[in-house]
Protein 1
Amino acid sequence: MSDRSIYRRFLAYRALSIRAYVPFLLVFLQGRGLSLSAAFDLNVVFILAGMLAEVPAGLFADRHGRRRAMIGAGLCMTAASALFVFASSWLGFAVANALCAVSMALSTAADSAWLYESSDGARDVDRYVELEGYSNTAKSLGNVVTIALAGFVFPFSHAGPFVITGLVTAASAALAATLPEQSRTRERRPWLEELKTAGHTVTHDGRILLVMAFAAVTFTLLQLTLFTDAAHLPLHVHGVSASELASMLGLLGALKEGATALSSANAGALYSRLSTRAAVVSISLATAVLFFAMGRGGDTSCLGSMLAAAALFGLFQPLARKLLNEAITASGERATLFSIDSAGRKVLFAAASALFGRAAESASLHAALRAVSWLSLVAYTVLAMGALGWLRILRRRPKKKDPLFSYM
């Protein structure tokens, strides 16, 4: 099998690794008898399950291979979709949400590590970034198509989006089984010892710590724009029913996935011409500006910023993965370190979501968005101080003179 054929199979796997039900989940759960508060409590289950699953998923991918982890990711999402269809209680939906979190953790641990190793990213990082951008594009396009199909089916059957997700992710698991394993076999040690080694790597390598901090802050900010869609969109559309609003949210979700796909497809070409330092600074400033634009409250600026945030996310993902892959020197820890990175993002996002919700309730959504804009500037300033070597906590035993910028 040629390298091109293998990569096409990987792109197909990424395109089929979807969650077509997300824009319709709240309406579905309320239709099954859950109150609004009970439905939102399921988000807590999802976040906690994801936090708990991330590192074990990474250890699994490092021990047993990236391919097995990707197969498991598809099968877990299929099982979760089936459980959503047949569950009749809050506990059943909670288990389904937990399975979704496990699926995403396995995918996070495996797909980028598989791509970096199969494309020899250590030797040709520009090629890897280009392939990573296409990989994210495939995933976004898969989401666009399946969300649009789910939106067509949803008025006829609220279970339709889950059936679509289950069938498509089962196909993703089958495709993952055809991919060659890229990770090298290594001596297996006790799980706790491996986790301790990976944790030591994070806390004693200033470069990895700083990259993870940048990724966690930016991911949290961009995810907050998605988190606020259900509350934000009704402020700019008037006189629509609940079902019409759900359809509009589905359309917005599809448009955002399209914007992410378009920007990811061009990420490789952009980063081949732009220095990493310039890319990091540009994304940081653009994120802060987006929140300020959304905080102004104008219909045009807010709706445009929603799509711009999705496009920015498409540029952020390949950059963050490039930085972390370059920072990791031990291939046998790659998936585990990616999982630690993902767990850190989830912890920060969980805390930020709770604080943001309370700020929006006590003031207003647009005021909270403006406040986040200023807080993001403070956060990026602190990270810049660490990159310049002004914060000792981010310079723990750096391998070179400077923990981040000397590598750019």
Note: The two ends are 36 Å apart (CA to CA).
Protein 2
Amino acid sequence: MSEGYEHRPVMLDEIVELFRPVPPGLIVDATVGGGGHARALLEALPQHRLLGLDRDEEALVAAHVTLAGFGNRVTLRRARFDRLKAMVNEGGEQNVTAVLFDVGVSSPQVDHADRGFSYSQDAPLDMRMDRSQSLTAADVVNTYPAARLTQVLHDYGDERFAGRIANAIVATRPLNSTSELVDVIRDAIPAPARRRGGHPAKRTFQALRIEVNNELDVLGPALDQAIDVLVPGGRCAVLAYHSGEDRIVKDRFREAETGGCVCPPGLPCVCGATPKVRLLRRGARKPSAAETASNPRAESARLRAVEKLDAVDAA
């Protein structure tokens, strides 16, 4: 990893084993980050090539260093993952056999104070994964009406005090730094609630990050694209860390598994739906106790995976 961008890949062994059976071809790492998962996959699957995508320029610089030893087996592109299909088509690729998503914020983004993701370090209110985009956390905090801000905190942060926090933010504007925001959040939450459930600003910061980066809106379309580009026998795996993300993954995979069937459960399908994938496991897989002990940030991870069906299996 490049200096200052060291990220511990979550559920690394599980990801490698999920992709080990796929036929030779192209692996798309839609959130390549510093290249940790990508490096392990390229080492374990020597007949495969890799296309790595990321919207964060600093992550791509790190990935270039991490993956330099694999030469022309690796192509890296700066792109948001809902452009996955366009990036694959641009390369003229017809044999995509695996797609990986590791969604959410990475450890280096949190740990670099100037990025504004952390409630534990003072920094400007930024939170952009792609620093070429215009919308920042400061824009959300200082311009959204109280009702819209409340909805963001409730929907994306599961924040039970969303209304109180939003009203406190509006009353204290302008806010320019993460520490100023943390103080407002802490004062808005009742004292008994502040003493349990972790840092009082955790859910608000999560919600703002998701809003700034439009994370949930682009995830569903990206998953659809991933399934479309896979060849039969290819696999798609997703690591999610937030209930909203995991819900989208679960729903999109269920839709692909049933082909959008609208027939009553338990009865034969007569609506003509054609399944696209099979689930590799019912329910989400979680990190081991040993992994969460050594890497607490892995604790909320949920892994789901599907395998693309061919026409015969689908029928």
Note: The chain has a mean pLDDT of 92.
